[in-house]
Amino acid sequence: MTDNTPVYCFTIPSVNDGTLLDCRIYHPVSLQEPQSAQQHTRKAALIAHPYAPLGGSMDDAVVTTVVDQLLDLDFVVGTFNFRGAANSHGSTSWSGKAERDDYISVAGHLLFYMNQIHTPRIKDTTSAQSPTENDSNIPSEHIILILGGYSYGSLIVTHLPPTSEILTMFRETQASTWTSDILKRAKELALQTNTLLSNQADTRGRLPGSPLRKKHKRQSSSQHSISLPHVLTHYLLISPLLPPLASFLSLSTSNLMFWRHADHIAHNLVRHPTLVIFGTKDAFTSSHKMDVWCKKMNALSLQNAGIEGQSCFKWKKVEGAGHFWREHGVEAQLTDSLRGWVHEAVKQ
Fold first, then answer.
1. pLDDT in tens, 304-339
2. In a domain, 255, yes or no
3. Which one of 126, 133, 213, 272 is most buried, counting C-beta atoms within 10 A?
């Protein structure tokens, strides 16, 4: 398990059928530090775990390694257990559709949680405006988001709808629905975080952020008053699964069509910064198949970028690494690849 302690452990219902999902949110140390307006960039990541019937959960060693790295890179990180995993309710589906909706549920929660967090700012002593008149606590214009997964978790990520569709799903929610319950929980946790950060800022002699807390209270009477964030989405796939194993997870023709449906895969992964990390000794998906798939996705990304554009699809093949990343020295290559990609591709 990670040495980092989650700030929140909680449950939310899945938008699929209300199944309760066990979730965690981790905060980076930097979240408590005062920031200038130029530094104020909100970064969040969600990492999904391997196949639950084979023991997969958010406590998986690879998942927690990635969590630690992203926290060190100043991301707020969310993890969760799919239905049927550990303390989450329900059971694993054969189609994967329910798990996709589980992921969407947690992603929506994380995005709206981030959209309502107001980190402390460095007081501008050169400004003639009072704290209530300036915009020192107004959220940044965008959220940097990494949607990631390891093994089966990465398979679910490749079948997610575009982030804009996820946001629309929550915007159009009605009262007393699972989506409204998710928004309510996001607001409650964000209020707790804002209070904590404000109190810490007070003790350090910095801006307490009271104007935003007042605004938050005015919004609490209506779920629909929550504004939609502008999101810059990135994708992270670690040891992804490809057919025939991915298809084996489906036992019916209709389910098989779900796994083979490639519209969202091409749309998301070739239009947004994407990193794929895999090992040459992966027993579940051959290195050759991964090479072929990555080159195909890279070509599609180049085609989408146009004549003068560059591909946003990147991949790293780690020699000697198996599916579980237990071989000597391979974990360091995984984390180095992740950190290098974040510094290069994740725009501030």
1. 988 778 999 999 999 999 999 999 999 999 999 999
2. no
3. 272
Q: Report DSSP letters for 302-337, one per residue.
A: HHHH-TT----EEEEEETT--TT--STTHHHHHHHH
Q: Which residues of 96-109 are buried (b: 16+ CB within 10 A; e: fewer)?
A: bbbbbbbbbbbbbb
* CATH number of the domain enclosing 36: 3.40.50.1820
Q: pLDDT, tens digit, for every residue of 89-148?
A: 999 998 899 999 999 999 999 999 999 998 766 554 444 343 333 333 444 568 999 999
Rounded to whole angstroms, the Cα distance separating 184 from 52 reads 28
CA distances from 95 to 249, 250, 257 (A): 7, 5, 10
pTM: 0.86
Tokens of 51: 């196949």
Percent of the chain with pLDDT over 90: 64
Asked if 179 and 170 touch (Cβ cutoff 8 Å), the reply is yes
Distance CA 20, CA 9 (A): 13
Whether residue 145 is contained in a domain is answered as: yes
Domain housing 153 = 8-119+141-198+229-242+264-346
Pairing between β-strand 76-80 and β-strand 274-279 as defined by DSSP bridges: unpaired
Query: What is the chain's Cα-based Rg?
Result: 20
